Amino acid sequence: MALEASPLVDLDRGLGLFSSHGHLSSNNTNAKLMLLHDPEPEPELNIFNQLSTTEFGPIGLEKDLQLSLLNANTNEVMDLTLSKDKKLSLEKHRLLNRFFKDWRTGEVTHIDSQLLSIFFKICTECSGSKNSLRVNIHSAFRSKQTNETLRKNSVKVARNSMHILGKALDFSVPSLSTVQLARNVKRHSKGGVGVYDTFVHLDSGPRRVW
Predict the structure, then answer these.
(1) How far apart are the first and last CA of the chain?
(2) Which of 25, 142, 159, 208 has the greatest CB tally within 10 Å of its CB?
């Protein structure tokens, strides 16, 4: 399993990615040094010439869904109501752009509509017979500045991470194991899928699985 291109430990806030809630104990030395993983594969450079999808068609959900999104780094919560066979409104998209910001710098970007559509479909399947689901967001948009800073701390960080384009999400579902979640993600995604110890990476870039 690959070690995601996010900080092993945020020294300012004591946060990391090796617990189910995105927190890492300061004395958990083994987790800090857990580097024996494959790196996130580098997408082709020409992907950076492709703009994120801006037009949002019908989401194509089979049912209404109430999502409760938790930022595992800041504990910020966003409740989102999705309606069957309706488009995501521009206002909700703007709210998601802000929620998925680079939490280290506060920078906001446009989150790819194709990525969000796939993510919503995955969430619908993960909810099973229920009409609600809690999802932990471990990483979303990442500025170039943040990505380069992280690269200095780990050789496992991709130089051209899809997070820089607003085309990637790392997330977990508390009610499912990582293996169960990865199975659902692989079923719906035509882009990149990375399976990690505590979350799954989803992106709308080229087809890659690691």
Answers:
(1) 7
(2) 142
Q: How many CA atoms lie within 13 A of 113 on its CB side?
A: 16
- 21 neighbors 199 (Cβ within 8 angstroms): no
Q: What are phi and psi of 113, to 5 degrees?
A: -65, -35
Write out pLDDT tens, residues 64-111: 999 999 999 999 999 999 998 888 899 999 999 999 999 999 999 999
Tally the C-alpha atoms within 13 A of residue 202's C-alpha that lie toward its C-beta: 30
- pLDDT, tens digit (0-9, with 9 covering 90-100), for 22-47: 333 333 333 332 323 456 777 665 65
What residues form DSSP beta bridges with 168? 203
Q: Quick check: is 3 in a domain?
A: no
The angle formed by the CA atoms of residues 81, 114 and 5, to the nearest 5 degrees, is 95
Question: Residues with Cβ < 8 Å from 59, sequence gap 6 or more?
Answer: 82, 85, 86, 87, 88, 117, 120, 121
4 assigned to some structural domain: no
d(CA 19, CA 105): 23
CATH at residue 68: 3.30.1380
Q: How many domains does the chain divide into?
A: 1
**pTM summary value:** 0.77
